[in-house]
Every structure is written in structure tokens, then in C-alpha cells.
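In response to reviewer comment 3 from the previous cycle, which asked for concrete evidence that the modeling workflow produces usable outputs, we include below a single protein chain processed end to end. The sequence was submitted unchanged, and the resulting C-alpha cells are shown without manual editing.
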Amino acid sequence: MESLEGPVAQADPAPPAPPAESAKVGTAYYTHVGRRIARKIAQTIFFKGLVNRLITRTNVVDPAAFGVKGGCVVVANHSSHLDAPLVMSGVPHYISRDLATGVAADYFFTAWYKKLFTQLIFNAFPIDRTGTGANRGLSKKLLAAGIPILIFPEGTRSKTGKMAPFKVGAASLAHSLEVPVVPVALIGAHEAMPKDSSWPRPGRPPVVVAVGAPLRTRGNETVTGFNERIEAAVRALYASNRSKIQD
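The workflow returned the following C-alpha cells.
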């Protein structure tokens, strides 16, 4: 299972990140009925046929999350290759149906087979990590078009399973476009498949996917304040559901 971040280091210089236009990922791509059906079939095979057979999962969803429709930012803690599949198959249907995930453009959008897989399974859109500014603003375009996006605010997977402070990008997006943030806590994913692993450990280890109530900005709340509240919500979900993991 390849990380959506791509390799941390490469021997050769990374190829340039393709712009959204050349990658053929206009916003209509993410809600196209035919691709939605193909994605549903592929996700059923990949998530239920593979991922869920390798772990023992428990889903906990706040009833308020079922009322979220249209553009929103889904945020989760990040410590495993399992995280994106767990989130995408754990949030309510109206979110998961078109949920798009940002991936490293210089790794996943430069080879047709990687691009095909990530777009088919994860409804992926390219993120530039080379500093060229390619694809800038695509996240906002997707949200403005009513397409939910998945962001891991820590920025990278945790090596220890402990949550790092959240970066403000997700909060800033949601704040500027006035869309809700859906917090998700993944408990046990690190133990099931740590960062340096290429496959989940044997014995179908337990994992909990806890989806919280949506959060919105309050009055004159700053982006920093909103970010702190988002992080606190994910940490609270993690703490309150940790007991469901039987070590």
C-alpha cells in the first residue's frame, strides 16, 4: 500500500508537478456520474475486499455528521498507510461519495498507472510539493464546487502514533469558504500498520474510526483559534474512543 505522500526522498530530482489543466482534473471530473460508479465499485473491492479483511474495524459516527452535504473539509490524524482508506470508508455516504484526496503531484501524477489508481480509488487531485505553485487554488475550487476534500493537518504520518500539532491549512480553507470541518480520529491504525511497514501486521488488529460532529467558525474567530478547536476535537475523539481498542 503506497503512501499518498509519496516517497520522502528520491535519488533523482522530482519531475515537475503537472498543472491541473494538463492533468485533466477540472472540478466536474470529481462528480461525474460514470466515474462515481466506477469509483464506488473500485472502493468496494479495495476497501471491503482488502483493507477490511486485514483489520478489525469499529466505526463510531456522531449523528450530526450525517447532515453534512456538499463542500466540507474532512480532517484526521495521520500515522499509517491505512488512514485514507479508513477515512474514506468511514465517513457518511454524502461525504464519501465524492470525497477528494490531495496527493503528491510529482509522484502520483507523472506515471499513468499511479495517476489512474489514485484517481479511481481516492478521487485524487494533485498537490504541488516542489514549490513551483502548480495546482495552487485547486482545493478552493473543489470546495467551492461542493466537493468535500480530505486533509491530514499534521502534514505527514507520525512515526510514533502520537499526534503532532495541526498546521493551519485545513482551518484556513474552511474559514475562508465558510464550509464545515468534519473531524475524524483514527485509533489503532499506527499499531496496525506503522509508518515503516508495507503491510498490516497479522491477526486482524483492531482499529476505530471515530467521526465527530461538524465544526464551523464562530463569529470573529481567527483561523488560529479555529485550527486549535479542530485539533482539540480530533484529540477528544481519540481519547474518548481509545478504550474500544483491545490491546
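Residues 7-12 have pLDDT under 50 and may be disordered. We consider this sufficient to address the reviewer's concern, and the full set will be provided in the supplementary archive.
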